[in-house]
Write a structure and sequence with these properties.
Mean pLDDT: 75
Order of helices and strands: HHH
Helix content: 40-55%
Strand content: under 5%
Largest sheet: none
Radius of gyration: 41 Å
Structural class: mainly alpha
Length: 123
């Protein structure tokens, strides 16, 4: 039964026509005939303008939105990095008790009676 149905469909194949399949059966002459009207009067009209304007407006809005989102992510990363640096600096300062103090003994230019070469008046 299935075999005979498939044979019937294959035998009737050249006669089958589906809607919209007419372009397969009628060949287009080559070369195609040229346009005979005024080429300056052809335009997409108001519908083409509206569609083009809509696509351009949506594109601009998407670019602005994406720029805003990228900027927000970048600022969040900068704040996160700054907070992490401050946390690490605080942890390092807590481990090093003398790291936060200015030691006048270690810097010879700060000892009384000595001046650094930058501070000396020109001769």
């Amino acid at each position: 039964m299935i075999h005979s149905l498939a044979a019937d469909v294959l035998a009737a194949w050249p006669r089958l026509r589906w809607p919209g399949s007419g372009w397969l059966e009628t060949p287009t002459p080559f070369p195609t005939p040229g346009f005979t009207g005024d080429a300056n009067t052809i335009s997409p009209g108001i519908v083409g303008f509206v569609v083009t304007f809509f696509v351009a407006a949506v594109t601009i809005l998407l670019i602005v939105d994406m720029t805003r989102r990228i900027r927000r992510v970048r600022y969040r990363d900068e704040v996160r990095a700054k907070l992490e640096t401050e946390r690490l600096d605080a942890a390092f300062a807590a481990e090093q008790p003398d790291a936060g103090r200015d030691s006048d003994e270690s810097d010879p230019s700060r000892q009384p009676g000595l001046t650094a070469p930058e501070d000396s008046p020109p001769r």
